[in-house]
Amino acid sequence: AYWEHMPLRMAQLPSGPDAQFYRRLAFGTMAEFVVLDTRQYRTDQPCGDGVKVLCDAALDPAGTMTGTTQELWLNERLLGSRARWNVIAQQTLMASLSTQNAAGEKLYGMDSWGGYPPARARLMRFLDAAQPANPVVITGDIHASFAADLKTDFADSRSPIVGAEFVGTSIASGGDGSDAAPVFVAAMRDNPHIKFHNNRRGYVRCDLTRETYRAEYRVVPYVRRPDAPVSTAAAFVLENGRKGISPA
């Protein structure tokens, strides 16, 4: 039913319960996209799902977002890439984003990479060791906009930056939204690798050249009625060969 009702290619026709959605898209030597599937092969959301304090299941090194086969495939694609920009397109927030409960305990979304810290750490260490050219992660799912540096250790501000993540908001989910969600504004103080947040509806427009990757966060003030004007809430740029995002 999923394949029949979604705009998928014949190559993705399921065989029994299996359908391979992860794939590689190359655009000459300018950009290579590796499109991940973080739904079919991952271990079940730990700690009972939701937004929780990390439990033992979340810290289990056997936990995976991609499954072993896809994880190895991703590493091979990045190692073999000759593209200027290596873009990882995937579904859930990769950068660490912690909030706090009333007791001051750190909470993480179990449905995102925050619920699978060992799997994320493996990927960050791989990016640091293999040094593929200009890794960029593009993400959705959380219904808000974020821009973040990716690091080998999100708890250590001195740890190396290994890539960047641009998170696009929803088109309509969440209603009109606001310039910022208070819970995420407060969280940014404890997550300095997150450089930007916006809670409006919209999209991210990316422009790639040989020397720069520019991301513009396009938002509208409302979606409950038609003809909303679109504006750029913020823009960031990555420079070829230089780690870390900068305001454009």
Give the helices and strands, then pairings.
Layout: H1 2-5, E1 23-27, E2 31-35, E3 51-52, H2 68-80, E4 85-89, E5 99-100, E6 106-109, H3 117-130, E7 135-139, E8 145-151, E9 161-167, E10 177-178, H4 182-188, E11 194-208, E12 212-220, E13 231-239, E14 246-247
Parallel strand pairs: 2-4, 4-7, 7-9
Antiparallel strand pairs: 1-2, 3-6, 5-6, 8-9, 8-11, 10-11, 11-12, 12-13, 13-14
Structural account:
With 248 residues, this protein is of the alpha+beta class. The chain contains four helices and 14 strands. Strands 1, 2, 4, 7, 8, 9, 10, 11, 12, 13 and 14 form an eleven-stranded mixed β-sheet that branches. A three-stranded antiparallel β-sheet has the order 3-6-5. It is globular and about 40 Å long. The mean pLDDT is 96.
Write a short abstract of this structure:
The protein contains four helices and 14 strands.
Mean pLDDT: 96
Instruction: Estimate the global geometry from the Cα principal axes.
Output: globular
Radius of gyration: 18 Å
SS elements, strand count? 14
DSSP helical segment count: 4
Largest sheet: 11 strands, mixed
What percentage of the residues does DSSP assign to strands (E)?
A: 25-35%
Structural class: alpha+beta
Poorly predicted parts: none
**Separation of termini?**
43 Å
Q: How would you spell out the order of helices and strands?
A: HEEEHEEEHEEEEHEEEE
In helices, the fraction of residues equals 10-25%
